[in-house]
Amino acid sequence: MVFNENRHCFVILGMHRSGTSALSGVLNLLGVDLGRNLMPPRDFNPKGFFENSLVTRFNDKLLKRLGSAWDDPSLLHSAWDDFCFTSDLSEELNEIFTKEFHGRAPIGLKDPRICILLPWWKRFFANNRMNPHYIIVVRHPLEVAASLSKRSEAKIKNINVSLLLWLKYVLEAEFHTRGASRCFLAFNDLLSDTAETLARISLELDVDFPTSLSAGMPEVCRFLEKDLKHHDSQTEPQIDSFFPAVAHCYDVLRKMTRADYVESPSILHDLDCCRKQYSDLCTWSGFVHESGEKGGISQLFVDTGEGFNEEEKIISETVFKHTFHYVRFDLQPFSAIHRLRFDPFEGHIGKFKLLEVMTDGTYAGIEQSNCSFEEDGWLEFFTDDPCLTFKGDFSNATYFALSFMQESLFDEEITQRFSEVSHCLLEKSVEVAHVRSELADMRDSWSWRLTNPIRKLHRYLIRSRG
Fold first, then answer.
1. Are 407 and 350 in contact (CB under 8 A)?
2. What is the pTM of this model?
């Protein structure tokens, strides 16, 4: 499905508490369509978020599937960008857009989570032939940290976590929008020089707002009150005393918000260095940077006509982020492949949930497995040698890749399962005893004895015909 081909879409990016709500509200006043289901205002954002609640819930769902969350400082592992294991969610997002956005007015998307999910969203925009224009809002990281510490639902008190989150969001937003239609703006400039800042956005993105600035500015100015900004970095300690990399990144981004900014290789190189330093900061601060981290051993057995055997198998290390795993097998050394069997882990008891399979062959589902239980897509294995056989045509396949989730099963979970089975067997045995009792009563009845000669005659006639 293609949603409104060539429709313009303003994508507002930036760390939480960076002024993205203010900009989104302004664009809404200038005629940009934010959809029907907007998040309601809250105490820490009384004017509103100007954020579509269905899109936000979708992004949370996507992050959860990736084993992450909005306040996770570590980067998503590199494999997820190359492996489109979330294709089943594309139709869901198409339905959201069809429901929320009507007509031809430019769309406005504001959810900071998009910063860290941009590779997925860029594919969505491309598949639907939309024209995204990225506006990256930059605010002083210490002001963001102070605002986050007051936010009722977050209350991130550790300033190191807040600064790492700020660095993650802005670096991901900048890196994944390179070469695209984009502009940078400072939150301070939006408040202090509103008309010029909005005019620069329109000029740099080469897109006109549905409502002209001259007509919309009075209402915009009433909306952008000075008290929208509650925290000022002038009263905060210098950022250099925490992470120099954060200070350097902010300085570079601040240059990119200026009207006379011209993108240069040296600026992008500085930001690439910041990305490398960010990885080191995660480790130094106690957050494991799990991009490409080894997640265990998986095996793929290849049946080329002689059945599955130890000689024809591939052993590979998975990469993972929390419980999400990804593994890719090269099938080029094999010819005339009949079947494939996947052993997700070995040496311990656990449960497994297949998210997606990618291959240039034809995959047709799981043929069989040696799991003990299946519930909500999870296969529970009470064996330390789990395996799954796949249906499909892999005769000419050159690769086979999977994304999946796995968790260990602990003694109490196993005990609970056996308790459930025992209870179920007990209920069945009671039912069998009840049926046997009813059958015995029936055979002792007068009607059964009376009709016994008829049954004997019926059996005799059947035998005689045979």
1. yes
2. 0.66
